[in-house]
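Recall from the previous chapter that SMILES is a line notation for molecules. Here it describes magnesium ion.
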Amino acid sequence: MTTNKSKDRKQKAIEKQQNIIDALKDHGAKVYGDLDNGQFPKFSIPSRSVSNIVYDKKLRQYILGNSAALRSSRNSSQLRSFTQLMWLAFFANRLTQEKKSSTLRDVYYSSQAFAIEFEDQSESDNIIVDLEAVLSKPREDFHIFPEERSSIFGDLNIEYTIPGYEGKRMNLSNHPDGYAIGPSLTTAELVDTSAEIVIAIEKGGLFTRFVEEQVDKKFKSIIINTGGQAPRSTRTLLKRLHDEMGLPVIVLTDGDVYGEHIAMVIKSGSANAAHLRELTVPDAKWVGVWATDIEKFKLPTIPMTESDIKRCYDLQSDPRYQEGIWKKELDVFLKIKRKAELEAFSKYGLTNITDKYLPQKLELAKSL
Amino acid sequence: MSSIKEKFNQISPSEFFYRNRDLAGFSNPTRSLYTAVREFVENSLDACDQKGIFPDVHLSIKAVDPDAPDPKPYILTVKDNGPGIESKHVPLAFGTVLYGSKFGLKQARGMFGLGATMAILYGQITTNKPVYVKSSTDGKIQDEFELLLDIQKNKPVILKHNTKEVTKRGLSVSICLEGDYAKAGSKIKDYVYETSLITPYATITFDDPKGEKFHYSKIVNDMPPAPTIIRPHAHGIDVETIRRMMVESQFEIPNIDDAMVEKVRKDLGLAKNNLAFTGIMDKAKKRWKTLSKPVRVVIALMSFLKMDFDKLNKIRIEDIDVPNKKLYYWDFGDSQSKSVDMDPESQYYKQLTGTVQGETLTTFLTKRFQRIGPSTAVKFAEFAGFKPEKRMGSMTNEELVKLSDSLQKFEDFLSPDPSCLAPLGEEPLEKGIKKFFKPDFCAVIQRPASAYSGFPFIVEMGIAYGGEIRPGGPHVYRYANRIPLLYDEGSDVVLKVVNDTDWSRYKVKGDPPFVIVTHICSTRIPYKTVGKENVADRQEIERELRLGLQFLSRKLAAYMSKRGQAEMAKKRANLYAKYLPLIAQFCTELAGKTKEPNYKKLLEEEIIVDDKQI
Ligand SMILES: Nc1ncnc2c1ncn2[C@@H]1O[C@H](COP(=O)(O)OP(=O)(O)OP(=O)(O)O)[C@@H](O)[C@H]1O
Ligand SMILES: [Mg+2]
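With both inputs in hand, we obtain:
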């Protein structure tokens, strides 16, 4: 049974690779054909302009609308970025075929080996997003990974798929500092777990505390440090843990508007990634620290800054903040104009957060 | 009375200009050297132009003592292949101020009749050396003069005069003057260079004191047509000018002296005989047709005075009072003033009043102005509210003002006759500009003739862009009557018009390699000073400059956008040549092919498309 399941998953992973490679080949062939026929090749790229980003209530995330921009090699002002995009497709194809991983910065430098100049990294980052949009696939699928590393800890068995480690297994509770969520982990098979929940926490300090306090064992959980706004590879992993292992995901952040939004991005993505649909965990739950917790738990607070307040107003016009706890907490933040960090619980003892607060919240999450 | 007259004469024109030499451009050794060069070179070019000779002018400046520091004496020599000056005129032309042959209404570089003399004067004052003039009008005999100027008397003093056999026509002037070539050098070189641009039909050489040689050969083989002398145009002429013209038009009451009486006798065939009054009148009637105007006037006077020649010798005419029909005279015998009545019915009355009151308005207009025929003159008289036969001499001051106002307002005069002007012409101007600046783009225009204050003028302009022109433009080259204007730029009308232009409107931006050449031709350039360096902003001239510049600027703008397109197309072609091979390379691997697609067709097609655009 397990072997079957694992075979399935392996099959799936291979298919996914093949899909990417096929898609890239299709695009290549089309361009090749155009050139050969004396025509200027072009790409249609879904527009990522603000006017084309819409909120899809069903999908519970931002998606791109129908408008697309044509990038044509005939247009001299687009020729350069067209070539850059072609190069990136070519480069992504090599990465995927050779199962090598790369980073955004790597891509920027690699381009120089092919006489493709990017003015700066942000230009190359942009082209990467273009390719994501053309393929409707996150860059991790074509082996380009973020630099930021977040980490994971808990009883989870994985099996590597990256070259040199294929078939090798690993349990993610063997190293108390946790495991960095990099390309090898993101692409690994998720084999099995005894955990019943995933706790995503915003800060490295608390992650260490949670490991120390054996939150993984006490609450049968996998602990993930998002390191602030969760990188996309982390969000992919969260989604896989939810979808493939059937684990609920809860999010614990600082008690401020930014914390609330970290949770929201895990749940329903960001406008920046509206062109991608495999990065969200719509069932993820934000359990704290809520604005209402500040009163309730008599937490020491800091006054909100101007930009905190402005951010509150911004989010008030976001369609996802129009109801439920999202709206309620945002309103309270605006009312009290104060915020509290996760560390604030230390006022009542270092383990107060794991002994008192967490169990309450886990209980509460069931009813959310 | 006579003593006052003498006092006036004590300040001769020479002295006047000596006192005002700053105005004429002789303020310091630097400026003076430059001005002296100009005066002689321009005289040479004028002389050649007027006779239709391709000028070949040689300028040389040599330091008397090359090792002395500036300022120091220099010997300036200008030699030409022009018509020369007749021997007897040489001392006057170079030794008196206000002697010139160019006062008539036609275009020339010289205007005032004092340029050469001022330079000579300046040389004489600073170095005490005479001027050497060599002139040959026939290419066989050359007159050689050594002259000094008598400043007080406005008179030349001939130190030496001899003749020599030669083979070439032309004139050469050589003076010694205090100058500062270290400072004036670059201006003089600019002057020679810019002069050769506006006189592309001339060959000019310049040997400078440092041993450098500059040679500009002629680059066009057509002389612009020589200007003709003509009358002024009615538009914009002022009251003062009309008054001056009227004086010319009025025949002065002859002074009946012995010589006059002798002449009348001779014309009547009465040199020997002495006839009585009636006999004289009869004789006059018979010969009337053959008599000259002064003689007719004397006869007319005699008819009213009823005097014979003897009596006539003893009186002096004092006044002819036309409104009261009285003739006043002084009788030397009785030593008193007397008068006789004039019979308006008499045939002689008209002769006399016509003389005194000058021409009729229509005659005045048709005879003294260009482009006015009899019918236009009558139409004008009606327009101005004068009788066509109104005598000019009977005009009151108010009427004169009315006349001059009307002359400016009347719109049916033909535009001024430009035959007195000698613009360079569009073709030679364009050739000159192309030769000198080697631009990528050049356009020229000659505006139609216009007039200011009764003086016709023509504006010619050229504009050039790119090529070998240095950046930092517009570089403005100003000319007036083929003279380059180098000093006092700030206050000039051309600069004003250029500075008023918003070049970005014509797609000229940044630090453009850009030249503007303007040439104003007129019988009278309205210079601000005698030094001929900047042109006053007369609105008529400003308008023509503006229109000309606008026309050229639009052409430039059209060129600039084409140039922009061509540059873009070139850039684009380069882009395709750079990127298409890369795209081909990448898609070949992506598509899993081994042979690259044939994208060369695209490169060729792109280049064809661009060719069509340019
Ligand atoms: N190189 C020459 N060849 C023939 N005639 C000349 C030459 N130089 C001068 N003349 C005669 O001498 C006259 C006096 O010259 P001058 O330079 O004093 O006056 P201008 O040229 O008439 O006026 P301006 O004061 O404006 O120069 C000229 O009008 C001309 O008739
Ligand atoms: Mg002169």
